[in-house]
Amino acid sequence: MSKIKEYIIDGYKYAVDMDLEKFFKGNLNKGIRLFGEVGTGKIMILKILCEFMLHANKIIAQYSACYVNNIFERRLTKKERLLVSPLFIDDIGTEQPQINVFGTIKQPIYEILNQRYLDKRFLMFVTTNLSPSQIEERYGDRVRNRLKEMFNVMSMQGESRRY
């Protein structure tokens, strides 16, 4: 079993915990999109959620955004790469936006977000350093608009907590 660093409550994390509490009282049919500066604890929150789901015997998939491109390059079927629920993707925006797969231009993150938007059965949790306007710039207005519908959004503020 993976070991998670100690989660210490302080001023920044207290605010995050209060925001998380709002989500658990809100729409549980939506995933969570955490965005903010580097080192603010986005992936730590998702790792904790992963651990809870694993303890509840949920099958999960967790990938970095860059690894998602790898999945497309290896030409896994749609079912293998898209129909996993919940799906956790870390660092959306760090991947190459387009890749060439045997002569066909693919946009893996866009395709996954779009497919999961169309088929609302599948939860998704993502982290990114991109603001909503940067998401729009990178993936387009359609994706930004759909993300509002798919995710509870939480901004992670503060200085880097990495030591």
Automatic annotation (TrEMBL):
Record-linked Gene3D superfamilies: P-loop containing nucleotide triphosphate hydrolases
**Record-given protein name:** ATP-binding protein
- Name the source organism: Ancylomarina longa
Which branch of life, at top level? Bacteria
InterPro entries the record matches = P-loop_NTPase
